[in-house]
Amino acid sequence: MKKKTNMKQIAYILLLLVGFSATAQQKKWTLKQCVDYALENNISVRQSLLDQQIAEQDLVSAKGNFLPSLNASASQNWNFGSFIDQNGSRISRDSRGNGFGLNTGVTLFNGFRNTNIQKQAQLGIERSKIQLDVLKNNISLNVVNAYLNILFNREAVKQAQEQVVISQKSLDQVQALVDAGTRASADLLVSKSQLASDNERLVNANNNVVLALLNLSQLLQLPSEGFDIQDVNINLTEAVLAYNNTNEILSYALDNRPEIKGAQLNIDNAELNYQIARSAYYPTLSFGLGASTSYQHLQGQDDVLPIVTGFDATSGEAIIELQKNGFAEQIENNLGYNIGFSLNVPIFNGFKTDASVKRAEISKEQIVLALEQEKQTLTANVEQAFADAKAALIQYEASKLSLESQELAFKNEQDKYDLGVSTSFQLEQVRNRLINAQSSFLNAKYNYVFKTKVLDFYLDKPITQ
Fold it and tell me: What residue ranges in 218-333 does DSSP mark as E strands?
């Protein structure tokens, strides 16, 4: 009975696992889910988060510069032959000894170096956050592009499937007419050739969908098997640009884009580097406090200390008493303390400080130029994105008119063919132009959608909607 129950439990678990696996494979990812997953799991993003944690530890270290240091020391020494003992006497025999110390110290002033290092560490945290924002923005844009590419290729598949259906229907009609003797067999060859061409186009379109899905799954760092996205019907009822020029976009981007903020923080960081370099011109004032003690043992001799307790009245010789002078007694008796200030005034160090300050100054000028370059690059990118979006809109409108015209031309040619005043070859030529117009329109539509997403990207608007 127990064995039967266990088999039921195993079967239940297997069913759950199979169901879970099927659910995982049937999941269709939305655009927002793809972007959110990429931002949470991308290796580069996780590395950037670790960089931010390192920057936070740099701040902890910088704050620690203001705290006093505390160090303990211990030593074991062996002396052979002649040496000076703890009392300053010359001893000519072997010995061993220990030394112990405890020291603390704090820097009171070093030209504001510690203050500037702390400010620099705080800037480091802000810079790491901005670098993370830049990385996330780029990943989001790449994911949106990959997602739209899948949708584009799926629409291309639908178009190819429709053409295969039309070609098959046309072939069946021609076959019937040829069999009836009202059409030449040459028309049948034309129809078969067109069907083969349309089938090849359908195979290529399906392959493109597979490759597009593979590209997105790799971008998300997910297994490609079973990966799929949710279909989105992109119907552009009205295609218009929300902006007449780049003024609004540039005004926002130059003030808010993380690339610009990062370049501005680099200038602040360079200024702090300059101030840190200049701190070497100033004197350094430190305060220290310490305690030390020692123990010494003469080899082959007991740890005793001769003490003069008086003098013999008759001989006048000193009365000496040997007192115990072991480890504990010496440690207590030799304990001493020290306290003091230390002032270090730089006078000349081979022009090293001068060179360091000059390098920091030149570096600051370079970074100021880097900010200007970043602004120019951003301006050029925004202007290019606006021009691309404007051109994409014009292309979309033109391809839409072309498609409408080719649809009408195909309908007219189909009517002529049905009346027998047009050949299969002429009909297929018109249909091929229609297929090309459909392909151009599809390209133009998705190109326009993505280009408008790029404009939203520079305005920090959501690009997943």
Answer: 284-298, 304-311, 318-324
Res 18: pLDDT = 42
The pLDDT score that the predictor gives to residue 183 is: 76
Contact 134, 259 (CB under 8 A): yes
What is the arithmetic mean of pLDDT over 336-347? 95
381, 141 in Cβ contact below 8 A? no
**290 beta partners:** 103, 338
Of residues 72, 73, 77, the one with CA closest to residue 295? 77
Phi-psi region of 437 (alpha: psi -120 to 50; beta: other; left: phi over 0): alpha
Report residue 104 as tokens: 């603390």
> pLDDT tens-digit profile of 379-407?
999 999 999 999 999 999 999 999 999 99
Q: What tokens does 264 get? A: 């501005």
Q: What is the pLDDT of residue 237?
A: 64
Task: Please choose, from the candidates 199, 191, 198, the residue with its C-alpha nearest in 3D space to the C-alpha of residue 175.
Answer: 191
Reported as a single tens digit per residue, the pLDDT across 74-98 is 999 988 877 777 667 787 788 889 9
Q: Is 439 exposed, middle or buried (0-12, 13-18, 19+ CB in 10 A)?
A: middle
The Cα 362–Cα 343 span in angstroms is: 31
CB atoms within 10 A of CB 92: 7
Mean pLDDT of 451-460: 91
**Measured between alpha carbons, how far is 315 from 311 in angstroms, rounded to an integer?**
8
- What is the H or E stretch that residue 110 is in? none
User: Residue 332 corresponds to which tokens in the numbers above?
Assistant: 């207590």
Q: Say what the pTM is.
A: 0.80
Residues in the chain: 465
Q: What letters, b where the CB count within 10 A reaches 16 and e where it falls short, cover 400-411?
A: bebbeebeeebe
Q: Average pLDDT, stretch 30-37?
A: 94
State the helix-helix crossing angle for 113-180 and 31-41, rounded to 10 degrees.
140
Examine the pLDDT at 289 and tell me if it is beyond 50: yes
| Helix (H/G/I), strand (E/B), else coil: 307 | strand
List the beta bridge partners of residue 311: 318
